Amino acid sequence: MTNHFPVNRELFDDVMVPNYAPSTVIPVRAQGSRVWDQQDKEYIDFAGGIAVNCLGHCHPALVGALKDQADKIWHLSNVMTNEPALRLAKKLVDSTFADKVYFANSGAESNEAAFKLARRWALDVHGADKSQIIAFKQGFHGRTFFTVTVGGQVAYSDGFGPKPGDIAHAEYNNLDSVKALISDKTCAVVMEPLQGEGGIISPTEDFIKGVRELCNQHNALLVFDEVQTGVGRLGHLYAYMDLGVTPDILTTAKALGGGFPIGAMLTTTEIAKHLKIGTHGSTYGGNPLACAVAEAAFDTVNTPEVLNGVQEKAALYIAGLNAINEKHNVFSEIRGKGLLIGAVLTSDYQGRAKDFLNAAMAEGLMALVAGANIVRFAPSLVIPNEDIAEGLQRFEKAVAKLVAA
Ligand code: PLP
User: Which CATH number fits domain 72-301: 3.60.140.10, 3.40.50.150, 3.40.50.12280, 3.40.640.10?
Assistant: First the structure.
């Protein structure tokens, strides 16, 4: 295709709604954990498309599934079901606590379905008074109006008129703050089993088990948003599997499609039955192309090789980041779990996470931030160890330059 205009970063400002401020770099191709931009400069990818590309870029199993399905059937709508959706749903229920699956197209949509289901379940089973949703400060659940209001940063939900009501926010890792809010009028407690966007914060065992108990005491559903933590990211298929706590509803997206948009809500038969015919839906949910790719991603990730590999690779990151810190003293803490890692900046570098990201980019390394003070890494779960080593070298160069500046 020939275009009669330059396709560059300036074009973004001309034709795109200004809600994003993307990098000046425009990647055009990628393989595994390496990415190349329009000028053919190479980058190592420690960002993984924000915890999405769980098998790197253009993984042969995913490319094969996409091409294969592309020659068969692309879209049907929910007036008909399809084979890839059925196969993926069966694999999800066979591998988790859940009996039923609802497919969506994103994390936010999966959460939207979860929150609507929780409200409908409560209305049907307990009556109209039971509508309170408790979520957590700094939590993140997406950008639809319901999900962003459940999310714990008012800055994201302010300025759009009246908000969905009866949503309260407790403090993560503070069980007393949940106790202070919860009652028999609570229909659901919604939480990430490790806060991602909010700063890579792991729950303490007492806290997460305590939340489960409080939900049981008050007949409230426990909803785990595993959009960022799910599909192997923390070294288990889903994070709940290593926490000794089982939710009533779980949402999954991001890595589920390995880079193809898909999300899902998982729950039990008893709860699922309240989303009766016609109560909720989506044109694209369960799209055959998306489900075929997700099935290939799921089959590849849900193996001991990949899941055990996450811990090994995480150890390389932690050792490498600690070594960088010994030399340059820029982090006060390196935290997280599996391949969701946060390097917290010391007081000298408060608010400068973006500077680290930009400096890394200049050295050929793609990283992420989680707020203004944390550099975040969410690489492919199968990133080659050599790429980790080389990426960390590039990161060290970036850190050294920032420290010297
Ligand atoms: N929930 C969590 C925990 C997330 O991290 C995100 C995205 O960062 C979302 C929900 C929203 O997902 P999406 O952007 O696919 O709507």
Answer: 3.40.640.10
